[in-house]
Amino acid sequence: MKKVLIMIFAVVISVGLFLVKNTYAADELTYQRAYEDYVYNMNLYRTVYSDYQLARSQYLQSKTLNYQSNAQEKTVKLLQTRDDVVITYLTALRMNLSEVQGISDSNRNIYFNQIDSDVSWFQNHKDNIPSAGTLEDLVGDSNKASEHYSTTTSLVYKSLAAASLGRVVNLTQKQKDIISALTDKINQISQSGDKDTSKAERWLIETNNRITRNEEKISQAQASLDLITPDKPKDQLKYYNDAVFRIQEAKQFLKEANDYIKEIIKELKTAD
Amino acid sequence: MQEKNTNPNPNEIPLTQENVNTVKQPQDIIEKPKTDLKFRLPFSDKQKKILKFVLIGLGAFVALLLVLVGIQKMLSAFKINNKQNEPVSTATSKSVEFPYDEEIRNPSVYATDEAILKLSEDTSNLDKLLDSVDINQSHLNIPDIKFDINFETK
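Predict the joint structure of the above. Result:
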């Protein structure tokens, strides 16, 4: 009997430990988790905003104390939820950047510091929204958030562009590694004299030209990204779109270079 | 006047209500099988109680586990559906046959060279990465939130 009980408890404890381990693994903050938090808060915000609109119109139609109190309550909820949306969105952006290769650590840390600073600002703003404040107080609180959000948008556009650029820079590095290995191989074949490599060498020059064009586009994208600043809120989206367009072009040159490499490999695999 | 016995056989039991009740029914005649065939565990009452609690607990635990697995499956299915709803890259690079896709008819000595095969594999992997890289990140577009909060009539 004792043995049976011990065995049962051992099984139960093992399964329990396994589940606890998995639960902790699931709690680890990843980009996916941060993004899900943001989506959840965004959906909540939409509901809360509808409630606020209803409460507002009821109050404006009939300015009773009851409607005023309801409008205050819904506005407080709206401001807090809106702050949560910004906080979780910035956290998702941070996690997105953290998982992208191709960004230097110093650049990444600059973005992280700016994002953390903004997250702290919105967290502080949320904590200081008075639950019993007047409607005028709440409007003032909303305006403070609005003013700060213009600096946040420049950070958002820069972070998004930096993440995309980092991805393409990383792929460019991979491409360069392949080209370097291919160049070594062509030189080796050329020295051995087993095969005529003149065609492959010419094509390799074309491939390197594509990489040069790719790097030009990366530089242009970086220049557009640098133009995104908080003091030019109207131009932020324009510069962001420009940066994304250059990154797309850089990617296209990379794709062409990769196709050329495939052709060179085929040429090397084919007898003269 | 004595009632005439109409029974032709004197040994036969007369058919009266009393006799009908006393006649054994077939199911009474057939001996009922012993139903007390319980498997007796060699445990004391206290041990049996503990075992009962453990088994109930284990059953509840397994049921809970099944519910959790079910929820996890549902969430996975939901995620897959969401992924399917995401915009799909419209790249059609495979629709046209490029020269490197054609079969090599006269292979050189380097057709099976290890370094060349590795380069070929790396190039294919990079191709997949280039096709899947998300530049626009439209799912992370800046959130549409309203800052115009006021209580003034227009």
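Chain B has four helices and no strands.
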